[in-house]
């Protein structure tokens, strides 16, 4: 990621999420709260391309899954969750250099599950729609 892209994200109110493991390899992952809603983003780079030179679908799915999981933890007030189902529908291709943004929406919270949907967008274009079910795990 270029310094100018990072500076633009910071000036727009985004902060880098502390990550490790796989997400650290494809990040940085950015987050912000806008009008009370949590938003997450990845600025796509060459490392995110597929064989056609577009954003790899797995990057889009990872952004959607992680952003929904983080929102589920926040909404349920529980630290430990596991994705038990996640459906993704690709609507359009993402282009390298675009900022992909996920804006998760909590549909329902029960004692043991959190249901969430999100759209992943690039500017005003919807790239993917996703929905997930997250299991609230007992604290260790």
Description:
Helices cover 25% and strands 39% of the residues. Strands 1, 2, 3, 4, 5, 6, 7 and 8 form an 8-stranded antiparallel β-sheet that branches. The protein is globular and about 40 Å long. The mean pLDDT is 92. A hairpin with a 3-residue loop joins strand 6 (105-109) and strand 7 (113-122). By secondary structure, the chain is of the alpha+beta class. Residues 53-124 form the Thioesterase domain. It comes from Bradyrhizobium denitrificans. This is PaaI family thioesterase.
Quick description:
The protein has 140 residues and is an alpha+beta fold.
Task: Offer a few descriptive terms.
140 residues
What is the percentage of strand-forming residues?
A: 35-45%
Let me know the largest β-sheet. Answer: 8 strands, antiparallel
Any idea what the radius of gyration is?
A: 15 Å
Mean pLDDT: 92
- Total strands: the figure is 8
Secondary-structure-derived class: alpha+beta
Q: What coarse outline follows from CA principal-axis ratios?
A: globular
Quote the distance from N terminus to C terminus.
36 Å
Model regions low in confidence, pLDDT < 50 over at least 5 residues: none
Domain Thioesterase: 53-124
Pfam family, one: 4HBT
InterPro entries: HotDog_dom_sf, Thioestr_dom
Protein name: PaaI family thioesterase
What is the strand and helix layout of this fold?
Layout: H1 3-11, E1 15-16, H2 21-26, E2 30-34, E3 37-43, H3 57-76, E4 81-90, E5 99-102, E6 105-109, E7 113-122, E8 125-136
Antiparallel strand pairs: 1-2, 2-3, 3-5, 4-8, 5-7, 6-7, 7-8
